[in-house]
Design a protein that fits this description.
This protein is mainly alpha-helical. The chain has two domains: 97 residues, no CATH class; 127 residues, no CATH class. The protein has eight helices and six strands. Strand 5, helix 8 and strand 6 form a beta-alpha-beta unit. Helix 1 packs parallel to helix 4 and helix 2 runs antiparallel to helix 4. The radius of gyration is 23 Å and the shape is elongated. It binds zinc ion. Zinc ion (ZN) binds next to helix 8.
Length: 238
């Protein structure tokens, strides 16, 4: 079995040449459906929490046990947590069950639904806080700044920096279907060779199918491995 094979190291080049590399099997890919349902539930909860924050701001909701400004911040932070977790589930679902990239706009909107949700979850509150004439200046400033910071964190965390299309997944499956691939804890690509030179310094190597690699956000094949295999048609990266 490939995963039992001991790696050969170049002693001068490797920090882990005397230790045995750890191997870990990737978790099953899972289903996209439940992930999408949970994402939507969390996003709806995020909107509800934004409404709570709005009501606190307008004086229609008061939890009594802490000052108004802390209530506002608490609701906004909970709102942010729901947006971020929902978006991670959504992105994961898209890596398991991607859509076609033929329609670029639809592809972008679908993959970055979390970014749209983040805007809806904070922009209305920020606008209200910014344009409100009744609140005192300090509350107004803190509320606006908090909402803008949440919007930025939520937006970046929800953006899919490595989107996958159904065409890309299909191409990877056609080329590498059934083959074992490898990736590292912080690496951005997957490898077809466990003795690839880029894996020399790796202490923990995860292995699985190409579907598992893509579900784990490694959407491109290592360029060195691709060259060695002579494959083309699969997205690669250095
Ligand atoms: Zn490689």
């Amino acid at each position: 079995m490939a995963e039992k094979k001991k790696k050969k190291y170049v002693a001068a080049d490797s920090e882990v040449s005397t230790t045995t590399q750890k191997r870990k099997e990737a978790k099953p890919v899972g289903n996209a459906g439940p992930l999408r349902v949970w994402a939507i539930v969390l996003w709806v909860l995020a909107f509800a929490l934004e409404i709570c924050a709005l009501m606190v701001y307008l004086g229609k909701l008061d939890l009594q046990f802490m000052p108004q400004i802390w209530q506002l911040i608490c609701f906004l932070v909970l709102d942010l947590i729901c947006v971020i977790i929902g978006s991670q589930l959504w992105k994961k679902a898209n890596h398991i069950d991607p859509i076609s990239e033929k329609n670029k706009t639809k592809f972008w909107l679908w993959n970055n639904m979390g970014v749209i949700v983040a805007s809806v979850a904070f922009v209305p509150f920020a606008i209200l806080a910014l344009t409100d004439k009744n609140a005192d200046k300090k509350t107004k400033t803190i509320a606006t700044v908090a909402a803008v910071i949440c919007l930025m964190i939520g937006g970046v965390a929800s953006y899919d920096f490595n989107p996958v299309s159904s065409e890309q997944l299909q191409a990877a499956q056609n080329t590498l279907g059934g083959k074992t691939v490898y990736w590292t804890t912080f690496g951005k690509v997957y490898h077809t060779h466990d003795d690839c030179s880029h894996l020399n310094r790796t202490e923990t190597l995860t292995y699985g199918t190409v579907e598992q690699a893509i579900a784990n956000n490694r959407v491109r094949l290592c360029k060195t491995c691709a060259k060695q295999d002579g494959v083309s048609g699969v997205a690669t990266e250095e």
